[in-house]
Amino acid sequence: MANGFPNKLMITLNDKIYTCPVDVTLGLIGGKWKLLILFHLHYFTRKSYSDLKANLPRVSEKMLSQQLKELERDKLILKNQLSVKPYRVEYSLTERGKSLGPLYEFISKWGIDYLMENNIDYIKDQHLYK
Amino acid sequence: MANGFPNKLMITLNDKIYTCPVDVTLGLIGGKWKLLILFHLHYFTRKSYSDLKANLPRVSEKMLSQQLKELERDKLILKNQLSVKPYRVEYSLTERGKSLGPLYEFISKWGIDYLMENNIDYIKDQHLYK
DNA sequence: TGTAAGGCCTACTTTTTAGTTAGCTATTGA
DNA sequence: TCAATAGCTAACTAAAAAGTAGGCCTTACA
């Protein structure tokens, strides 16, 4: 091919077909809620189900538990059962989840800069958030 | 609040409501195709419509032109009209689009590492790709 | 002359994603 | 004893995203 790009190089993994590594990564962290959940766990280290629920106000419980399950399945987060009798759990990042740390930071920072360009001073407006 | 997290801090921008900067960034580059398109323009510097079409084989033309329009609207890419008579165009990253450079690199690298962990040697398999 | 390539757009259908409501088990606190 | 909190799940519906098919104009090429 004239542009040095192969026409049809596909990657098959877990019954899904990807065209390139970017695609692969997006397969794990794409979607509307995953990066948000991961960022919160990155920022707060560990959180209970209801903490996440409170901190991600627009996420329905259905979406939350669904995404948590997928993230756990893909080994990006860990679910730790704290107690059985009163059933209490705690979510945290696995090593794989932590390896995306620079990504969370970059995306958050870029968002703040973008807001700044649009004359919204997030730092000023955020009170206790960060 | 006990966790030092504000209950309902929302950011309003362009008639959309966001909960945090991560959310803001995802509003611009989220979705199934945008990062893929951006990465290709980052990697190849500039590309015509049909080059993109050929390099992103699973993207339908509908999606491609729709996403290109949104990316242009959000000033992440630039559409340059090369000629009028034979209508020819070229897409490239704007400064804002380029400012996401580290993100493209990170996501691509992370995908390659992830494949490696799954015993797929992308470097070996990719021939001319990179 | 007619076919392909470049650069799209529109209408319609399907799939995916997400929202809503309700319900379940168990424990703590008033 | 009763409500509230934690941690979910399931069923059903609605909305958003994506796929499919076709069409349109112009120019280059055989």
Explain how this protein is built.
Two copies of one chain form a homodimer. With 130 residues, chain A is α+β, with helices and mostly antiparallel strands. The first copy, chain A, folds into two domains: 1-30, no CATH class; 31-125, Winged helix-like DNA-binding domain superfamily/Winged helix DNA-binding domain (Arc Repressor Mutant, subunit A, Orthogonal Bundle). In chain A, 50% of the residues lie in helices and 16% in strands. Chain A has a three-stranded antiparallel beta sheet. In chain A, α2 (34-44) packs across α6. Chains A and B meet through α1, α2, α3 and α6 of A and α1, α2, α3 and α6 of B. Chain B binds a DNA duplex (30 and 30 nucleotides) through residues 31-33, 48-50, 53, 60-66, 85-89.
Biggest sheet of chain A: strands side by side, in what order?
Answer: 3-5-4
CATH class of the largest domain in chain A: Mainly Alpha
The radius of gyration computed from the alpha-carbon positions of chain A, rounded to a whole number of angstroms, is 18 Å
Number of strands of chain A: 5
Amount of beta strand of chain A: 15-25%
How would you spell out the order of helices and strands of chain A?
Answer: EEHHEHHEEHHH
- The CATH architecture designation of the largest domain in chain A is Orthogonal Bundle
The structural class of chain A is alpha+beta
**Intertermini distance of chain A:** 50 Å
What form of chain A results from the Cα inertia axes? globular
Secondary structure tally, helices of chain A: 7
**Number of structurally distinct domains of chain A:** 2
CATH H-level homologous superfamily name of the largest domain in chain A: Winged helix-like DNA-binding domain superfamily/Winged helix DNA-binding domain
**CATH T-level topology of the largest domain in chain A:** Arc Repressor Mutant, subunit A
- Largest Cβ-defined interface: A-B, 54 and 55 residues
Quaternary state of this entry equals homodimer
